[in-house]
Amino acid sequence: MEISPEFLSQCFLHTLSPAPEPRRAAEAKLSEAADQPNYALAVLRLVAEPSVDEQIRHAAAVNFKNHLRSRWAPSPESSLSPILDAEKAQIKTLIVSLMLSSTPRIQSQLSESLSLIGKHDFPKSWPTLLPELISNLHAASGNNDYVSINGVLGTANSIFKKFRYQYKTNDLLLELKYCLDNFAAPLLEIFLRTAGLIDSTVSSGGGSPVTLKPLFESQRLCCRIFYSLNFQELPEFFEDNMDKWMNEFKKYLTTSYPALESTADGLAVVDDLRAAVCENISLYMEKNEEEFKGYVEGFALAVWTLLGNVSQSSTRDRLAVTAIKFLTTVSTSVQHILFANDGVIPQICQSIVIPNVRLRDEDEELFEMNYIEFIRRDMEGSDLDTRRRIACELLKGIATNYRARVTELVAVQIQNLLNSYAANPAANWKDKDCAIYLVVSLATKKSGGTSVSTDLVDVENFFAQVILPELRNQDVNGFPMLKAGALKFFTVFRSLIPKPLAVQLFQDLVRFLGAESNVVHSYAASCIEKLLLVKDEGGRPRYNSADIAPFLQVLMSNLFNALKFPESEENQYLMKCIMRVLGVAEISSEIAAPCIAGLTSILNEVCKNPKNPIFNHYLFESVAVLVRRACERDISLIPAFETSLFPSLQIILANDVTEFLPYAFQLLAQLVELSRPPISPNYMQIFSLLLSPDSWKRNSNVPALVRLLQAFLQKAPHELNQEGRLSQVLGIFNRLVASPSTDEQGFYVLNTVIENLDYGVIAPYMVHIWNALFTRLQNKRTVKFVKSLLIFMSLFLVKHGSVNLVDTMNAVQPNIFLVILEQFWIPNVKLITGPIEVKLAAVASSKLICESPSLLDAAASRHWGKMLDSIVTLLSRPEEDRVEDEPEMPDIAENVGYTATFVNLYNAGKKEEDPLKDIKDPKQFLVASLANLSARSPGRYPQVINENLEPANQTALLQLCTTYNCPIV
After folding, report:
1. pLDDT-derived band of residue 148, with 50, 70 and 90 as boundaries?
2. Distances, alpha carbon 245 to alpha carbons 160, 161, 251, 324, 685, in Å
3. Looking at residue 454, what DSSP letter applies?
4. Strand (E) or helix (H) holding 445
5. pLDDT of residue 939
6. Burial class (CB in 10 A: 0-12, 13-18, 19+), 423
7. Neighbours of 706 (CB within 10 A)
8. Phi, psi values for residue 445, rounded to 5°
């Protein structure tokens, strides 16, 4: 059935309604219609209909773009029906001409749509696109139609962007060559033609902004396309025509355009073009320095002069940053000699660095109005380059070759700034801020660690004279930007501040948690948190529970109170500090009670509308570490924790708070593991929920559910044989092990069953288990799966004996055990890693060759010898290859988000259990087992060893026998 334009027009009209009812009804109708064939084509035709109101056509263009995004090339997991090839072909035929004839708002949407198609189909599945764009470019150029010219250039810019971001491959280079062969010449032609129009317009009376703006936008687009086409390597065409491009680039950096620059809008247009030029010359400086060297000095002078005229207005930040970046690139290249002349470095410092490092009104406004963004730029070094940071990067760049000069000069500047502050602190506080910023930003991080150093100042002396007065100041709200700078300095140079002084200052840091400024109390929390991570030589923490014990209660109270400040209700720096303090402090019941009350209150609030994933992660980590540390000290606190936490966890489960379910399951697992049998009825209700197949539908919940299931299997194994629960658990195992994305989790479930239940309970199910494993081995074999299977077989053998292992496997298919042994166990056991896993695999394999009738049979001597060879290889690997250090808690990356992924709670982590606690050394176990075997069958095994072991392994085995004084007779 064809979708009528009248139907679509009415629907798009109603989507613009401010009233929710007609808007939702229209959106539902469109969503239903979107599944019909030719829906996209019908919407595109509505966009093309000039008689329809432009607002409706714009809404249709947005819908068309979103429809393409989800259905042009839907992911394999998507349930949406894809656009059919016949419809795609018609869309490609119509879209270019329609985009060029549309109004600017609609053109923008259609250009994005075209780019979406191009991302998947260009050039291989859309060979007509580039010729059509070039043809339209020539036609529009002949008519001086800059709306269409910029439409074509904007589209070309979008489809060529991939050359900036994709890895260099042969396919990418072939696509790039195709684009260069067809578009490089037309690009230069339109660039030079537009340059001529700008020159003639300006020289004949300055021109009007209306005339000049589209011309400047055209040049900016040409510059962005230049950047994309030159990004991978220098193309021959651009090298041959470098003079033409560079002369025009330099002109835009050195010429003023009063007709445009007299207004803010016009100045922004010119600055955007200049910024694009700076990015192009920086690219050539980085990648084509040899070919570009003749132009460097002229551009360096042009950029330097330009920077002297760029005001401090935030509207000109992008130009300032890109221009300074170019000078930074020059400073670290072979062209750095340009900075060697007398007076150059002082002038750069005076005219570029200091003005851009000084606080501006915009910085103060950001500090007060958007503390999260201020911290992101100031403390965390966000992707967004700021003038302050890039100016310091320029100094660092120059210091690469002129360190002594830069250090001496900046040290003098810092002293001058501090003298200015001392002369009039109230009026000149920004000078002190500037001095602190310079010291912090020019500090160099020592390789391989978090400690920093600086040769600008003596850190201890600077700290005592400049920073300490700010930290000791009793007015936590006075001059908050200076306080923030002092706290940042303390944080950055924390490893260089002597411990006795730092311990004295802890109470001042606790005071600053009460500052009204969000930045100040965030920096105070961050400083405390980072101090507690400082380690001395040997990896020993510098600060321990005794150091914070005297003020622990007031510290925790101030942290929770700071979360009540406006806009700090979900302050991740405060919550991270809470987590870190709880991980270090001695947690008494006096501390635990208010902390769990405070955390559950916050948890109940964020459950209503989870917004900040990083804050929420640290919140759950804080709960987990509090429960762990408090119960380590006093197990009787568990009932109080259960009483506090259960209502919050039930809210998450009952309301299906998707983002929090994995966290809730991990906390429940932690509580189950800590509780003493018999398990409370509350937990058994959750156990029933856990065994429901519906709980396992979301893959993001699986690792946490497995963790919880393991906790139940360990704590209540006797409950498993009631009400058919074991069948349900094995059904879960079956589902998980069938898929490569969850098979490892399936083995965790299976291993826990094998470890905690008697053989008589699991024996009736073993044929089912082997069937599931062998089916998966046959259909979707991966290295990870094979390793997990080996660990499972090893665990089964050490728990229930080799005879049960061999017999249950052979019950599935006669003699399958020897097939599995030969094809999988023997070749792969040497690949096992992890200290517990290596010991388990080695001991199980040793038991197999020394105790199993299947391998003690003379007919199996070749298998016996090959298995021994693999065991010796496994145990002969260097210790560092096998031992995995206990990881420290990882820092949570900024990209923790609400995608459907599992985020592990470090502090609720499962403790690795060693199933072979009685066996300390697998090497000794092997040679002792071999010695006993040789004693029972003298003279039989040396020949088998000589025939099957690699020479290196024969030597290694002999050394082991000598070491443990267990000769093989």
Report:
1. very high
2. 19, 20, 10, 21, 73
3. -
4. strand 444-445
5. 67
6. exposed
7. 26
8. -80, 135
Q: How many CA atoms lie within 13 A of 356 on its CB side?
A: 29
Residue type, 871: I
pTM of the model: 0.82
d(CA 573, CA 553): 19
Report whether 303 contacts 327 (CB < 8 A). Answer: yes
Structural domain boundaries enclosing 845: 758-883+920-968
The Cα-based distances of 530 to 338, 451, 541, 604, 708 in angstroms read: 41, 11, 11, 28, 32
825 within domain boundaries: yes
919-964, pLDDT tens digit by residue? Answer: 999 999 998 888 888 888 776 677 777 777 888 888 888 888 888 8
Radius of gyration over every alpha carbon of the chain, rounded to an integer in angstroms: 35
Provide φ and ψ at 541, rounded to 5°.
-60, 135
User: Which residues pair with residue 486 across a beta bridge?
Assistant: none
Categorise residue 723: left if φ over 0, alpha if ψ from -120 to 50, beta otherwise: left
In terms of Cα–Cα distance, which of 852, 886, 888, 884 is closest to 867?
A: 852
Number of domains in the chain: 1
In angstroms, rounded to a whole number, what is the distance separating the alpha carbons of residues 66 and 88?
Answer: 15
For 687-800, where are the E strands, in sequence order?
none
956-962 long-range contacts, CB within 8 A, separation 24+:
956/872, 956/876, 957/868, 957/872, 957/927, 960/872, 960/875, 960/923, 960/926, 960/927, 961/927, 961/930, 961/931
Q: Is residue 852 part of a domain?
A: yes
121, 117, 4: which is closest to 67 by C-alpha? 117
C-alpha distance from residue 298 to each of 265, 306, 331, 348 (Å) = 29, 12, 15, 17
Do the domain assignments include residue 940?
yes
Q: Does 837 reside within a domain?
A: yes
Structure tokens at 946: 């000589």
319, 370, 566 from 366: Cα distances, Å: 20, 5, 16
